[in-house]
Structures are given as C-alpha cells and as structure tokens.
Specification:
The chain has a domain at 3-66. The protein has four helices and no strands. The chain has helices spanning 3-6, 11-19, 25-43, 51-66. Helix 3 (25-43) runs antiparallel to helix 4 (51-66). The relative contact order is 0.16.
C-alpha cells in the first residue's frame, strides 16, 4: 500500500492492516508526515509539527504490534495527528 493510500484508510482498516502486519503505526505516521509535506505548502494547514514526538509515540505501539499475541486498546494502534492550542504547548510559536 502506498504512503498516500495509508493516509486515507479508515481506523478499522488500519487495525486490520496492523493485525496482519501489512502496516505499522510508525509507517502510517511517516506516511501522514509525508502527505503533510506534500500538501501543506499549498494549504498552510499546519503551523507547527511535533514530528519527532509523534514518531517516538508511534514506535511503542509499533513494537507491541510486531510482537506475536500482543493486545492493545482499540485506538492505541491508530496513528493520530492532533492540533494543540498554544496554551497547551506554550513553547510552540503562535499561529495567529
């Protein structure tokens, strides 16, 4: 599956891909950042990306998913891009 395709897969389909080891949370997070890099210069939707933190957060469920018989919560495996208000991340530059 291409990086672009991974960005548009539903959460239930991602779970299936993870279960069958056809994709990992880390691969999906990398695909999402690749898509942001490709599209954001035109749409300017993201001001600050916490790429290293997101990739680090994706490594833990990736390690767990690759272990046989691993059980994770239903959303723990899903790569997620979240926007934070400046009040939550005061060290980030303001978006206004």
């Amino acid at each position: 599956m291409s990086d672009r395709d991974l960005c548009f897969v539903s959460a239930t389909a991602l779970q299936r891909l993870y279960r069958t080891r056809k994709a990992s949370p880390l691969e999906v997070m990398r695909a999402v950042f690749s898509r942001i890099d490709a599209v954001n210069p035109r749409v300017n939707a993201y001001v600050t990306l916490a790429q290293e933190q997101a990739l680090a957060a994706a490594r833990k469920p990736t390690a767990a998913v690759t272990r046989k018989g691993a059980t994770l919560g239903p959303l723990q495996r899903i790569a997620n891009i979240t926007t934070f208000p400046a009040a939550v991340a005061p060290s980030w530059p303001p978006s206004l």
